[in-house]
Amino acid sequence: MTLFLRRISISSSLIVCGIAFAAKEPATVPSVPVATELEKLMSEHGFEVRGIEQTADATARAEGGGLLARLHMLLENFDYVLVQTPDGGVERVLILGEKVAYVPPPLVVESDDEDADPVTSESSDAEEIVLSTQRKGSSHLLTLTLEGASEQQVKQLLLIDTGADQVVLPASLVASLGLDTSTLRNQQVQTANGSVDARVGTLPAIWLGDTRVADVSAAFIDDQRLGGQALLGMNVLGRFRITIDDVNNQVTLGSK
User: Fold this and answer.
1) Are 153 and 145 in contact (CB under 8 A)?
2) Which of 52, 109, 240, 256 is in Cβ range 3.0-4.6 Å of 119 for a Cys bridge?
3) Could you tell me if 213 and 206 are in contact, meaning their C-beta atoms sit under 8 angstroms apart?
4) 117-149 pLDDT, tens digit each
5) What per-residue confidence (pLDDT) applies to 33?
6) Residues 226, 194: contact at Cβ < 8 Å?
7) How confident is the model at residue 217 (pLDDT cuts 50, 70, 90)?
Protein backbone atom coordinates (compact mmCIF):
# COMPACT_ATOMS: atom_id res chain seq x y z
CA MET A 1 0.00 0.00 0.00
CA THR A 2 1.29 3.46 -0.86
CA LEU A 3 1.04 5.96 1.98
CA PHE A 4 0.55 9.63 1.24
CA LEU A 5 2.09 11.87 3.86
CA ARG A 6 1.20 15.51 4.34
CA ARG A 7 4.32 17.31 5.62
CA ILE A 8 3.87 20.59 7.42
CA SER A 9 6.89 22.69 8.40
CA ILE A 10 5.87 24.93 11.28
CA SER A 11 7.64 28.01 12.54
CA SER A 12 7.28 29.31 16.09
CA SER A 13 6.74 32.86 14.84
CA LEU A 14 3.43 34.44 15.89
CA ILE A 15 1.00 35.04 13.03
CA VAL A 16 -1.53 37.81 13.54
CA CYS A 17 -4.44 37.52 11.11
CA GLY A 18 -2.04 36.82 8.24
CA ILE A 19 -1.03 40.46 8.02
CA ALA A 20 2.64 41.10 7.29
CA PHE A 21 4.39 43.79 9.26
CA ALA A 22 5.69 46.81 7.38
CA ALA A 23 9.37 46.92 6.55
CA LYS A 24 11.51 48.81 9.00
CA GLU A 25 12.25 52.44 8.24
CA PRO A 26 15.66 53.99 8.82
CA ALA A 27 16.61 54.61 12.46
CA THR A 28 16.57 58.38 11.85
CA VAL A 29 12.75 58.44 11.70
CA PRO A 30 11.54 60.28 14.85
CA SER A 31 9.51 58.39 17.47
CA VAL A 32 6.16 59.48 18.92
CA PRO A 33 4.05 58.24 21.87
CA VAL A 34 2.09 55.27 20.52
CA ALA A 35 -1.08 55.99 22.52
CA THR A 36 -1.19 59.63 21.41
CA GLU A 37 -0.73 58.73 17.75
CA LEU A 38 -3.37 56.00 17.96
CA GLU A 39 -5.88 58.44 19.45
CA LYS A 40 -5.13 60.86 16.62
CA LEU A 41 -5.70 58.18 13.98
CA MET A 42 -8.89 57.00 15.71
CA SER A 43 -10.25 60.56 15.57
CA GLU A 44 -9.31 60.97 11.89
CA HIS A 45 -10.52 57.58 10.63
CA GLY A 46 -13.28 56.56 13.07
CA PHE A 47 -12.07 53.10 14.12
CA GLU A 48 -11.95 51.54 17.61
CA VAL A 49 -8.87 50.44 19.58
CA ARG A 50 -9.10 47.99 22.45
CA GLY A 51 -6.15 47.54 24.79
CA ILE A 52 -4.67 50.98 24.07
CA GLU A 53 -3.70 51.23 27.76
CA GLN A 54 -1.00 48.64 27.08
CA THR A 55 0.84 51.20 24.91
CA ALA A 56 0.90 53.89 27.63
CA ASP A 57 4.71 54.15 27.92
CA ALA A 58 5.62 53.03 24.40
CA THR A 59 7.05 55.07 21.56
CA ALA A 60 7.34 54.14 17.89
CA ARG A 61 7.92 55.54 14.44
CA ALA A 62 4.94 57.39 13.00
CA GLU A 63 5.82 57.77 9.34
CA GLY A 64 4.15 55.67 6.68
CA GLY A 65 1.91 55.79 3.67
CA GLY A 66 -1.70 54.77 4.21
CA LEU A 67 -3.51 54.03 7.46
CA LEU A 68 -2.61 50.32 7.50
CA ALA A 69 1.10 51.01 7.03
CA ARG A 70 1.04 53.60 9.83
CA LEU A 71 -0.71 51.21 12.21
CA HIS A 72 1.69 48.37 11.45
CA MET A 73 4.63 50.66 12.14
CA LEU A 74 3.16 52.02 15.38
CA LEU A 75 2.40 48.53 16.68
CA GLU A 76 5.49 46.68 15.44
CA ASN A 77 6.50 45.88 19.04
CA PHE A 78 3.05 44.56 20.01
CA ASP A 79 0.95 41.49 19.27
CA TYR A 80 -2.34 42.71 17.86
CA VAL A 81 -5.32 41.84 15.69
CA LEU A 82 -6.53 44.26 13.03
CA VAL A 83 -10.15 43.90 11.87
CA GLN A 84 -10.90 45.44 8.48
CA THR A 85 -14.16 46.56 6.90
CA PRO A 86 -15.39 45.00 3.62
CA ASP A 87 -14.11 48.02 1.69
CA GLY A 88 -10.58 47.66 3.09
CA GLY A 89 -10.84 50.23 5.87
CA VAL A 90 -10.11 49.63 9.56
CA GLU A 91 -12.96 48.78 11.91
CA ARG A 92 -11.14 47.74 15.06
CA VAL A 93 -7.66 47.10 16.48
CA LEU A 94 -7.20 44.68 19.38
CA ILE A 95 -3.86 45.12 21.18
CA LEU A 96 -2.96 41.88 22.98
CA GLY A 97 0.28 42.97 24.65
CA GLU A 98 3.96 43.59 24.02
CA LYS A 99 5.89 41.04 22.01
CA VAL A 100 8.06 38.82 24.15
CA ALA A 101 10.91 36.77 22.73
CA TYR A 102 9.99 33.10 23.12
CA VAL A 103 12.72 30.62 24.05
CA PRO A 104 11.29 27.14 24.57
CA PRO A 105 12.64 25.13 27.50
CA PRO A 106 14.52 21.91 26.70
CA LEU A 107 12.49 18.78 26.12
CA VAL A 108 13.08 16.23 28.88
CA VAL A 109 12.50 12.57 28.09
CA GLU A 110 11.77 10.54 31.21
CA SER A 111 13.75 7.35 31.78
CA ASP A 112 13.15 4.31 33.98
CA ASP A 113 16.87 4.29 34.80
CA GLU A 114 17.23 6.48 37.89
CA ASP A 115 20.97 6.87 37.31
CA ALA A 116 20.60 7.97 33.72
CA ASP A 117 20.92 11.63 32.79
CA PRO A 118 17.81 13.30 31.32
CA VAL A 119 17.86 13.54 27.53
CA THR A 120 17.29 17.09 26.29
CA SER A 121 16.82 18.51 22.82
CA GLU A 122 20.02 20.57 23.20
CA SER A 123 22.28 17.70 24.18
CA SER A 124 21.02 14.87 21.98
CA ASP A 125 19.22 14.06 18.75
CA ALA A 126 15.97 12.98 20.36
CA GLU A 127 14.00 10.23 18.65
CA GLU A 128 10.90 11.18 16.74
CA ILE A 129 7.66 11.18 18.69
CA VAL A 130 4.92 9.26 16.89
CA LEU A 131 1.39 9.68 18.24
CA SER A 132 -1.94 8.27 17.09
CA THR A 133 -4.62 10.84 16.29
CA GLN A 134 -8.39 10.92 16.20
CA ARG A 135 -10.13 12.54 13.26
CA LYS A 136 -12.69 15.33 13.26
CA GLY A 137 -13.35 16.01 9.61
CA SER A 138 -9.98 17.00 8.14
CA SER A 139 -8.59 17.90 11.58
CA HIS A 140 -6.50 15.72 13.89
CA LEU A 141 -6.83 15.46 17.67
CA LEU A 142 -4.43 14.03 20.24
CA THR A 143 -5.15 12.59 23.67
CA LEU A 144 -2.38 14.01 25.86
CA THR A 145 -1.57 14.09 29.55
CA LEU A 146 -1.64 17.48 31.24
CA GLU A 147 0.50 17.78 34.37
CA GLY A 148 -0.76 20.10 37.10
CA ALA A 149 0.26 21.01 40.63
CA SER A 150 1.80 18.28 42.82
CA GLU A 151 2.18 16.14 39.67
CA GLN A 152 -1.59 15.79 39.27
CA GLN A 153 -2.35 14.47 35.79
CA VAL A 154 -5.40 14.78 33.56
CA LYS A 155 -5.96 13.14 30.17
CA GLN A 156 -7.32 15.63 27.63
CA LEU A 157 -8.25 15.52 23.94
CA LEU A 158 -6.68 18.49 22.11
CA LEU A 159 -7.17 19.65 18.54
CA ILE A 160 -3.93 20.27 16.62
CA ASP A 161 -4.34 23.97 15.77
CA THR A 162 -1.49 25.85 14.06
CA GLY A 163 -3.61 29.03 14.20
CA ALA A 164 -3.54 29.13 18.02
CA ASP A 165 -0.45 30.75 19.51
CA GLN A 166 -0.78 28.83 22.78
CA VAL A 167 -2.54 25.89 24.42
CA VAL A 168 -6.22 26.65 25.10
CA LEU A 169 -8.12 24.63 27.73
CA PRO A 170 -11.61 24.66 29.28
CA ALA A 171 -11.74 26.59 32.56
CA SER A 172 -13.13 23.55 34.40
CA LEU A 173 -9.66 21.97 34.23
CA VAL A 174 -8.16 24.58 36.57
CA ALA A 175 -9.53 22.75 39.61
CA SER A 176 -8.82 19.28 38.18
CA LEU A 177 -5.17 20.23 37.69
CA GLY A 178 -4.90 21.68 41.19
CA LEU A 179 -3.71 25.06 39.91
CA ASP A 180 -3.60 28.05 42.26
CA THR A 181 -6.13 30.53 40.82
CA SER A 182 -4.20 33.45 42.34
CA THR A 183 -1.34 32.73 39.91
CA LEU A 184 -3.59 33.08 36.86
CA ARG A 185 -3.82 36.45 35.11
CA ASN A 186 -6.83 37.83 33.26
CA GLN A 187 -6.30 38.39 29.55
CA GLN A 188 -8.33 38.91 26.39
CA VAL A 189 -7.75 36.10 23.89
CA GLN A 190 -8.72 36.26 20.24
CA THR A 191 -10.59 33.17 19.00
CA ALA A 192 -12.40 32.27 15.78
CA ASN A 193 -15.58 33.60 17.44
CA GLY A 194 -14.08 36.90 18.55
CA SER A 195 -12.30 38.22 21.62
CA VAL A 196 -13.06 36.38 24.88
CA ASP A 197 -11.96 36.63 28.50
CA ALA A 198 -9.40 34.06 29.59
CA ARG A 199 -7.27 33.23 32.60
CA VAL A 200 -3.70 32.52 31.60
CA GLY A 201 -1.20 30.49 33.58
CA THR A 202 1.61 27.97 33.22
CA LEU A 203 1.21 24.20 33.30
CA PRO A 204 4.14 22.36 34.88
CA ALA A 205 4.17 20.12 31.80
CA ILE A 206 2.37 18.48 28.92
CA TRP A 207 3.27 14.89 28.03
CA LEU A 208 3.60 13.97 24.35
CA GLY A 209 3.65 10.22 24.79
CA ASP A 210 6.76 9.61 26.92
CA THR A 211 8.20 13.07 26.26
CA ARG A 212 7.66 15.71 28.93
CA VAL A 213 7.42 19.32 27.68
CA ALA A 214 7.87 21.57 30.72
CA ASP A 215 6.43 25.00 31.59
CA VAL A 216 3.69 25.38 28.99
CA SER A 217 1.59 28.56 28.91
CA ALA A 218 -2.14 27.84 28.70
CA ALA A 219 -5.25 30.01 28.38
CA PHE A 220 -8.32 28.77 30.29
CA ILE A 221 -11.62 29.81 28.71
CA ASP A 222 -15.19 29.29 29.93
CA ASP A 223 -16.29 25.80 28.86
CA GLN A 224 -19.42 27.00 27.05
CA ARG A 225 -17.55 29.64 25.05
CA LEU A 226 -14.92 27.07 24.11
CA GLY A 227 -17.56 24.56 23.06
CA GLY A 228 -15.73 21.77 24.87
CA GLN A 229 -12.83 21.92 22.39
CA ALA A 230 -9.27 22.22 23.78
CA LEU A 231 -6.46 23.34 21.45
CA LEU A 232 -2.82 22.34 21.12
CA GLY A 233 -1.19 25.58 19.95
CA MET A 234 2.09 26.83 18.57
CA ASN A 235 3.86 27.24 21.93
CA VAL A 236 4.10 23.43 21.83
CA LEU A 237 3.84 22.62 18.11
CA GLY A 238 6.40 25.27 17.14
CA ARG A 239 9.16 23.31 18.88
CA PHE A 240 8.94 20.47 16.36
CA ARG A 241 9.06 19.52 12.72
CA ILE A 242 5.65 17.95 12.10
CA THR A 243 4.51 15.24 9.72
CA ILE A 244 0.80 14.31 9.60
CA ASP A 245 -0.16 10.95 8.10
CA ASP A 246 -3.79 11.26 6.96
CA VAL A 247 -3.98 7.58 5.94
CA ASN A 248 -2.83 6.02 9.22
CA ASN A 249 -4.05 8.87 11.48
CA GLN A 250 -0.67 9.58 13.00
CA VAL A 251 1.40 12.66 13.75
CA THR A 252 5.20 12.55 13.91
CA LEU A 253 7.05 15.22 15.88
CA GLY A 254 10.75 15.54 15.11
CA SER A 255 13.47 17.84 16.36
CA LYS A 256 14.09 20.95 14.27
Assistant:
1) yes
2) 109
3) yes
4) 444 433 334 578 999 999 888 889 999 999 999
5) 92
6) no
7) very high
Alpha-carbon dihedral sign for residues 243, 246, 247, 249: positive
For residue 95, the surrounding DSSP H or E stretch is strand 90-98
- At 160-178, the pLDDT tens digits run 987 788 899 999 999 999 9
Residue of 153, 157, 165, 162 whose CA lies nearest to 134:
157
pLDDT of residue 190: 66
Please work out, in degrees rounded to the nearest 5, the angle formed at the alpha carbon of residue 111 by the alpha carbons of 146 and 121.
Answer: 75
Using CA atoms, how far residue 167 sits from 3, 80, 241, in Å, is 30, 18, 18
* b/e 225-246 (16+ beta carbons within 10 angstroms → b): ebeebbbbbbbbbbbbebbbbe
Rounded (10°) CA dihedral 177, 178, 183, 184: 40
Question: Which string of DSSP letters, residue by residue, matches 112-171?
Answer: S-TTSPPB-TTTS-PPPEEEE-EEETTEEEEEEEEE-GGG-EEEEEEEE-TT-SSEEEET
- The three-class DSSP label of residue 177 is coil
**pLDDT attached to residue 28:** 58
What are φ and ψ of residue 246, in 5° steps? -70, -30
Q: How, if at all, do strands 139-147 and 194-208 pair?
A: antiparallel
Q: Any idea what DSSP says for residue 193? A: T
Q: What is the pLDDT of residue 209?
A: 92
Report the alpha-carbon distance of residue 40 to residue 38 in Å, rounded. Answer: 5
Do residues 30 and 60 touch, judged by C-beta distance below 8 A? no
